[in-house]
Automatic annotation (TrEMBL):
Keywords for the protein's UniProt record, in alphabetical order: Amino-acid biosynthesis, Arginine biosynthesis, Cytoplasm, NADP, Oxidoreductase
UniProt xrefs under SUPFAM superfamilies: Glyceraldehyde-3-phosphate dehydrogenase-like, C-terminal domain, NAD(P)-binding Rossmann-fold domains
Family, per entry: Belongs to the NAGSA dehydrogenase family. Type 1 subfamily.
Active site residues according to the UniProt entry: C148
NCBIfam families: argC
InterPro entries membership: AGPR (IPR050085), AGPR_AS (IPR023013), AGPR_dimerisation_dom (IPR058924), AGPR_type-1 (IPR000706), NAD(P)-bd_dom_sf (IPR036291), Semialdehyde_DH_NAD-bd (IPR000534)
EC identifiers of the protein: 1.2.1.38
Function: Catalyzes the NADPH-dependent reduction of N-acetyl-5-glutamyl phosphate to yield N-acetyl-L-glutamate 5-semialdehyde.
One GO BP annotation of this record: L-arginine biosynthetic process
Organism: Peribacillus saganii
The protein's name: N-acetyl-gamma-glutamyl-phosphate reductase
The protein's enzyme class: oxidoreductase
Length: 344
């Protein structure tokens, strides 16, 4: 299978290159840019100096002649413009942006402050939460890859929802991310001297991942109340930790909850449930496609505390995108993705 990457010079695109240049089923056919056509990828990104690729312009007709699958690692707002032409040319699409994820009328406009993608492509798009939507992904022609925070959050909450154990009001998600989650372009917020030795809350009550999380929880539970979700920037390069607090319908034990989580993910190679009284940290998934989850029942509040960690660029973006591409072609979802995390 031949694949191409649009937005190859960005953080998500670079991670896709890392995964796809030695993948057992995909041949990386071409890399595309809106601003640097003709530049070798190794000149733009020195860590890829061993690769022969030259960045090429974005010409959907030309790309469609050689690529079976196109990854859009492009900013929100750009993917919705590019997706329809590739789709019309019969290319399968995996979009890393938020453009194709929100289905309910008016939600995209409200949270992303722009016009949503055309209904035709939006209706085609399947939400690519690999572990929970595999059957739909297998048949998809367009995959809306989940956001980084929603991936950590939804994988952490799913077993409680599937079991019908969660009370669907007053859910709290307290999330933190490394700075690479903000992409390659430096800003006043991500500037080293402002970020180093610092810890920041941002987009309070306004994060664009709130409707994405509520949409999926709503699909699992029917109706849910609005979720309290806030995000923080941590002075580290990669990693997301989502700490979640959920009131339960009945008393339980940590042991019982862990059994529920282990059963829910027993056939999923990338979700690793921690032993009792162990909680994951971001470094244990660094550079990998794993999502590690720790769970405890708080007898005093009748709430479950769930801690879910991922690498934002891997399971939160490129890793899950390749997992979805594997599912799309009927391959083992873990093909080319079982590297151990980088440690220390
Ligand atoms: N970083 C993360 O952890 C995550 C990111 N995402 C999403 O993935 C997508 C990519 O993110 P990320 O790689 O971090 O972002 P970056 O900003 O690092 O890279 C985006 C790339 O898109 C290209 N681009 C910019 N403008 C245009 C345009 N008009 N047309 C085509 N290409 C353009 C740029 O490359 P060039 O100038 O060469 O065209 C740029 O390098 C985004 O939608 C983001 O929201 C999702 C989950 C996690
Ligand atoms: C640290 C940081 O800034 N992270 C970004 C995540 C961006 C992202 O994943 O965007 P979409 O999923 O909407 O495409 C943010 O919070 O907006």
């Amino acid at each position: 299978m031949k694949v191409s990457i649009i937005g190859a010079s960005g953080y998500g695109g670079l991670e896709l290159i890392r995964l796809l240049t030695h993948h057992p089923h995909f041949h990386l056919e071409s890399l595309h840019t809106s601003s640097m056509a003709g530049v070798p990828i190794g000149a733009e990104s020195n860590h890829l100096a061993h690769l022969p690729y030259i960045l090429e312009e974005i010409d959907p007709e030309k790309i469609a002649k050689t690529a079976d699958i196109v990854f859009l690692a492009t900013p929100t707002g750009i993917s919705k413009e590019l997706a329809p032409s590739f789709h019309d040319l019969g290319v399968k699409l995996i979009d890393l942006s938020g453009d194709l994820r929100l289905k309910k009328t008016g939600e995209y406009e409200k949270w992303y402050k722009g016009a949503s993608a055309p209904a035709k492509i939006l209706n085609e798009a399947v939400y690519g939460l690999s572990e929970w939507n595999q059957k739909e992904i297998e048949k998809a022609s367009v995959i809306a890859n989940p956001g980084c925070y929603p991936t950590a959050t939804l994988l952490g909450l799913a077993p409680l929802f599937m079991e019908g154990l969660a009370i669907t009001s007053d859910i709290i998600v307290d999330a933190k991310s490394g700075v690479s989650g903000a992409g390659k372009s430096p800003t006043a917020v991500t500037h080293f001297s402002d970020m180093n030795d610092n810890f920041k809350i941002y987009k309070v009550h306004q994060h664009q991942h709130i409707p994405e999380i509520e949409q999926q929880l709503g699909e699992w539970a029917g109706e849910i109340d609005p979720v309290s979700f806030n995000t923080h920037l941590v002075p580290m390069t990669r990693g997301i930790m989502a700490t979640m607090y959920v009131k339960l319908k009945r008393k339980t034990t940590t042991h019982e909850l862990l059994d529920l989580y282990k059963t829910a993910y027993e056939n999923q190679p990338f979700v690793r449930i921690q032993p009792e009284a162990h909680f994951p940290c971001t470094k244990q998934v660094y550079g990998s496609n794993f999502c590690d989850i720790g769970v405890a029942f708080d007898e005093r509040t009748n709430k479950a505390t769930i801690v879910s960690v991922i690498d934002n660029l891997m399971k939160g973006a490129a890793g899950q995108a390749v997992q979805n591409a594997n599912i799309l072609i009927g391959a083992d979802p873990s093909a080319g993705l079982m590297q151990a995390p980088l440690y220390p």
